[in-house]
Amino acid sequence: MEYQGLIFTDSLHIEELFSLHYFEYMSSFSFRGESHDFWEFICVDKGEVTIGAGEAVHILRRGQIAFHKPNEFHWVKANGSVAPNLIVISFSCHSPMMNFFCDKILSVEESERRLLARTITEAGNYLEGRLDDPYQTVLKVKEDADPASGQLIRVFLEQLLISLWRRYHNISAVPQNRKADQLPDKTIKENNDTELFNQITSYLNQNLAEHITIEKICRDNLIGRSQLQKLFLKKSGAGIIEYFSDMKIDAAKQMIRTEQMNFTQISEKLGYSSIHYFSRQFKKLTGMTPSEYASSIKAMADRNMEQEGKGSRKKSHTHGRQAESRRGK
After folding, report:
1. Strand partners, 76
2. Closest of 123, 150, 148 to residue 136, by C-alpha
3. Residue 121 reports pLDDT greater than 60
4. Which CATH number is correct for 16-173, 1.10.3720.10, 2.130.10.10, 2.60.120.280, 1.20.1440.20?
5. pLDDT of residue 328
6. Domain 186-324 is in which class?
7. How many CB atoms lie within 10 A of CB 303?
8. Which stretch of DSSP H or E encloses residue 64?
9. d(CA 169, CA 86)
10. Measured between alpha carbons, how far is 58 from 105 in angstroms, rounded to an integer?
């Protein structure tokens, strides 16, 4: 049988990234404006701003995204009463699909907000400097950036643009009474909450060595403080910081059981300010000091269970290969 490959074609392709910012501005903020030969969009995560796009002036509110085409003069200012949070990203893209975004102000749905959140999170791991530096004109990659972070940023942004294009381009073709084949609102919300919870717990796991605040978690995941607390109370029965502390101690217990690092090294690895603070937190959550846990029956039992689990997986894998070998005979 002869196979013939399918070559993918890109309907939309981002060539270069020029800026990627998440700003938390004062209520008196004002940017006098600029123009450049590449695309830019501004999305309001909190509050509202007034924007200028060529000759037009618009009020941009939370959940809205506005596009500035290449060489269009644009400016932005806060309304004087609410301090806005803004995402501003500029890039070059010469795909014909971009014509749709000329002079457009669109609304961002939850799935698209999550794409923006993942973009911001990945940028924090990938780019040097701060994402809220308005004077940064040259993007530099961190020496220890995760593999393929830049590619993921491009993919997330392309997915965001394609999602917006599809949703708005085909809106008139969507029948009005299609509720029969749609999930109930409650189910959709539950699925969204689960996906968001998984996204944030993954983010926390990647930042176990950091001292992160609720404000940083909210900013990096594009979620409000109240929504974040409600989500974690609903899904875990604990507040976000309490949940994060539990994650750190669980990681510490696992490190103790591997017996490859001492307590000071474990404390530093998990971002604690001192070995004494680490010990206090450990005892507060486990009822034992790290030393007591290391020599406890509980630690030995947990270690044995882990080893048995690895042995069981290895044994299962060996039996699988033997079974395949017998089938081959």
Report:
1. 31, 51
2. 123
3. yes
4. 2.60.120.280
5. 44
6. mainly alpha
7. 16
8. strand 64-68
9. 25
10. 9
Confidence at 10, pLDDT banded by 50, 70, 90: very high
pLDDT band (50, 70, 90) for residue 19: very high
Closest residue by Cα to residue 191 from 201, 199, 179: 199
**Strands 105-107 vs 85-92: parallel, antiparallel or unpaired:** unpaired
Q: How many residues does the chain have?
A: 329
Question: H-helix or E-strand containing 106?
Answer: strand 105-107
Residue 88 neighbours by CB distance under 10 Å: 18
For the chain, how big is the Rg over CA atoms in Å?
25
What element of type H or E holds 186?
helix 185-206
Q: At what angle do helices 185-206 and 110-126 cross, to 10 degrees?
A: 10
Q: What is the mean pLDDT of residues 245-262?
A: 86
For residue 102, how far is the Cα from the chain centroid?
A: 27
Domain boundaries, the chain: 16-173, 186-324
Res 176: pLDDT: 42
Return the residue matching tokens 């924007």. Answer: 51
* Residue 199, helix vs strand vs coil: helix
Question: Confidence class of residue 295 from pLDDT cuts 50, 70 and 90?
Answer: confident
pLDDT in tens, 267-287: 999 999 899 999 999 999 888
Output the pTM of the full model: 0.62
- Among residues of the chain, what percentage have pLDDT more than 70? 84
Q: What is the rounded (10 degree) CA torsion for 60, 22, 119, 208? A: -140
